[in-house]
Structure formats: structure tokens, C-alpha cells
Amino acid sequence: MTVEIARTPAQLMGVLAMMSMSLEEGVTPELERFARAVGLDCLDALDAQSLKSGDDPKGLANVETFKTLTPLESISDGATPYTGSFPNPSDPTTDWWKSSCYFEVVDKHMPVPKGVELPAWFDPEREKKPLFEDFMQAGRLDCAWLTLNSTGWSIADARQALVALQERADDKAFDAVVAYWLSIADLDAGGY
């Protein structure tokens, strides 16, 4: 199951930094270089928070970068209401299927209103690589991304698709995320 850990690129970079701090037991020179490369300016605040809450995502809500547009995973029960669009079983009134992938809803009971047909990336029988290519050709990078984040991919095909998306996105922060994923995406893992 996937959970919403970030709602902005800065938050995602913050989560990655927090994960690194947890693994490395603090801030390393490599993490400092990463933070500079992606424009993450809250490394000290994240480090201080990690000493208080460890890697508990609820603690991130205390860091300025996470106080606005707080991700669902960082909202404590009874705290501020969630205002995002991530599939939330507590608020099934949103059109969650338009901007969600399979992994975001796999273990949740998310009702689909009568008459609504789920996008093709939810179909486990649909081949994902040609679907991804169709979305790329149509300029629908959002749908291509959601397709890439659904089941039915070999690691080899996913690596190629991610690089194609990276080239079209032309986003330096995304480049750093892609480089990291490619460094750990083992071809021997098969697929997802």
C-alpha cells in the first residue's frame, strides 16, 4: 500500500532527507550535497525534529515545510483536517480515481460511484507499457506517471519508461529522484 508522505516537491525531498538521517543516524556530507542540489532549505529543522520524533511521519507536521498542505500520513488524529486529494477512506466524496494510482488504493476500501469507469491504469489485465506510451504521445505526463505507478511492469521496462518521462518532464528535482530510483531498481527483482 502507498501512503501520502508529501504533497509538494519540497516535502518529498524532506521525507527523503529524513529517511537518510534515520539510516545514517544524522546528517552526512552526501545528504548536505543532495539538499543543496534539490533546493531543500530545512535540513536543520528536519534534523532537530528527527531527534524528537525519530522517523515518525506525524512529527514532520512540526517542520515549517509540512505545516501547509500537510500530507495525509503526517496528520495526527484530531489535528487539522486533511485538504488534499490523496485517496482518503475518511472522505470518499472526492473523485480520487482521476489522480490516483493502483498502489494508493490497493488496501483501502475506496467506493467507486455508479457509472464511473476507472482509468485504464487500474485494470490489472491492461498492458502498462503501451498504455504509458499512449499517454506520453498524447502529452499526458500525469497519466503516464500514474500508469508507471501501477502494477504490470518489469523493472527493465519501468526503468526505460521513467527515463522517458524524466526527459519530457525537464525538472531538476525529479532528475535527482530518478537517479536515485535507477540506482536501486535492480533488474533481477523482476517486476511489480
Write the layout of secondary structure elements.
Layout: H1 9-24, H2 29-38, H3 43-53, H4 64-67, H5 102-105, H6 128-137, H7 141-148, H8 155-169, H9 172-184
Helix pairs in contact: 1-2, 1-3, 6-7, 6-8, 7-8, 8-9
Walk me through the structure.
The chain is mainly alpha-helical and 192 residues long. Among the domains are: 9-74, no CATH class; 120-187. The protein contains nine helices and no strands. It has helices spanning 9-24, 29-38, 43-53, 64-67, 102-105, 128-137, 141-148, 155-169, 172-184. α1 (9-24) packs across α3 (43-53), α6 packs parallel to α8 and α7 (141-148) runs antiparallel to α8 (155-169). The longest helix has 16 residues, at 9-24. The chain is globular. The mean pLDDT is 90.
Offer a concise description of the structure.
The protein contains nine helices and no strands.
Element-by-element helix/strand order: HHHHHHHHH
Distance between the termini: 13 Å
* Average pLDDT for all residues: 90
Fraction of residues in H or I helices: 40-55%
Return Rg in Å.
18 Å
Estimated share of beta-strand residues:
under 5%
Low-confidence stretches: none
How would you sum up the global shape?
A: globular
Extended strand count = 0
Q: Report the total helices.
A: 9
